[in-house]
Each structure stands twice: as C-alpha cells, then as structure tokens.
Amino acid sequence: MKVKLIQRSNPLDKTQAPKYYAHMENEGVADLRDLSKQVTKYSSLSVGDISNVLDNLVDAASLFLLMGRGVRLGNLGMLRVVLKSEGADSPAAFNTKMIHSIKLKFTPNVQLKKLLEDTSYEVVR
Question: What is the pLDDT of residues 43-63, one digit of tens each?
Fold first, then answer.
C-alpha cells in the first residue's frame, strides 16, 4: 500500500513544531466495471454476466438498507444505515424533522481487518 507524508501542525498547540503523518496515496477508484473484469479472472462467467450480478447486488443491498436491515457482504464486511438526531424530552415530542444526518457505515470483517493490519507500506516521495 502506498502512503505519502503530509506535514500538519497541532491544532491544539500552534507552538509545537509540525509533524509528518502518513496519508493514503490515492490510486483512483475501481468501479463496478473494473470489479467485473477482475472477477472474470476467477470465474467462467463473462464480464456482462458479472456486471449484471453486481448491478443487481447494488439494487438488492439498497433495498435492504432502506428497510433498516444491515447487509453483510461476505468476508468484506457489513453495511448499515446510521442516523443522528436531536434529542426529544419524550417519544411524543419527537418528530422526523429532528433527524439531521443519515450515513452509511461500513464495518470490515475480521479477515479484512487482519489483511489490512498485515499490509506492508511503501512511502512515496
């Protein structure tokens, strides 16, 4: 995994000397077509077949997320919806306008976490 070094000062103490911190080197984004091409290397299915399955996976996962269900993606991890809202003094005092944030949270599977922990790094200059 490639990382670059970014110099940052301490926002809590501007008198401290800046330090260098690792930051992921952005290598771009793999889209569903890229994933389809990669999966065909491990399968007898065509790119079109894999693309169709992945498109349907996105639709099905979106449906389950909108139903309030988490979606476990095998050894990759789990997606779930997380809400943030203002607090109400009672259930009767709450209304949905008090919800101010909806996010999609990804929690990696144990195997993926281990794979990431065991990754070697290359500092890009």
Answer: 999 999 999 999 999 999 999
pTM across the whole model: 0.76
- Report the length, in residues, of the chain: 125
34, 73, 108, 113 from 77: Cα distances, Å = 20, 5, 4, 9
In a domain, 64, yes or no: no
Give the span between the Cα atoms of 93 and 87, in whole angstroms: 9
Number of domains composing the chain: 1
Residue ranges making up the domain that contains 106: 70-119
Residues with Cβ within 8 Å of 70's Cβ and at least 6 positions away in sequence, in order, are: 64, 78, 79, 80
